[in-house]
Design brief:
By secondary structure, the chain is mostly helical. The chain is built from 13 helices and no strands.
């Protein structure tokens, strides 16, 4: 199963890092003191992220390395370093910083843990990624637990573990029955498991809460063909041609129609 078909593989986003306001705001820190170094690290971390967003990776690396020298004991700075070294394609160094960020974040920052999870899911360590995503999902401070469980499911799918993926998607739907990613993936999984009627029901729930996509129409056609409803399958096929004529799924449809006996 190609988990990239629908919406991309766990699209990573630069969440706002928790660079907390420093104590004693307004009071000048003594040069060279611990407080002065901590303040400088926050400033350099923010500058590093700003340079990264501008595409100036050389300046971003210079600032984040300086921030780490000044204070490497905050999850925010370690997470920023992970982002930047990932962009620099130094995956080994990025992984080290993400690991440090998770250790420093503990249970207090599920966003940091979730971002580390995305990195590992997308860079060859999906089991660790799923573990971190579940850690983020189970945090009582996480306001989007359903999304984290859905991402954990995507991570398990990418690792070829559909049973674990299904468990994660069902946990997401138990929290939010309208969680669109989980509904779509459950339609795929139940179809693969031979339950066309259940797949149809999941897809109907999905289309009730999410915009129609080429992937959804292609899945609908496959479901209806499996259930023996050629007329409904033809409707899905025609919508693909009419609404998404240049999509990958429409190209697959034309290939299927050309090879049909």
């Amino acid at each position: 199963m190609d988990v990239r078909r629908h919406g991309g593989l766990l699209a990573a986003s630069l969440v706002a890092l928790a660079l907390l306001a420093l104590p004693g705001a307004g009071q000048a820190a003594e040069p060279g003191s611990r407080k002065a170094l901590d303040e400088a690290a926050v400033v350099n971390t923010e500058l590093a992220l700003a340079y990264m967003k501008e595409g100036n990776l050389a300046a971003a690396r210079e600032k984040i390395d300086k921030a780490l020298q000044q204070n490497s004991r905050t999850a925010g700075t370690q997470m920023a370093a992970g982002f930047i070294y990932d962009q620099l394609n130094d995956k080994r160094k990025a992984a080290t910083h993400y690991e440090q960020a998770v250790k420093l974040a503990g249970k207090d920052n599920p966003d940091v843990v979730a971002n580390a999870a995305v990195f590992f899911c997308m860079n060859g360590d999906p089991k660790r990624g799923e573990q971190y995503m579940l850690q983020a999902a189970e945090s009582p401070l996480n306001r989007r637990q359903d999304v984290a469980f859905a991402n954990a499911g995507r991570c398990a799918l990418g690792d070829g573990r559909p049973k674990e993926a299904e468990q994660n998607f069902r946990r997401a739907l138990a929290i939010n029955p309208k969680q669109s990613e989980s509904l779509f993936q459950m339609a795929e999984l139940t179809l693969a498991g031979g339950n066309g009627l259940q797949a149809r029901a999941f897809l109907e729930r999905y289309t009730a809460v999410a915009p129609v996509t080429p992937a959804a129409l292609w899945l609908g056609r496959r479901i209806e063909l499996g259930l023996g409803d050629a007329e409904q399958a033809a409707r899905y096929a025609q919508r693909l041609k009419d609404e998404f004529p240049t999509s990958q799924e429409t190209a697959q449809l034309f290939d299927a129609e050309r090879t049909r006996p």
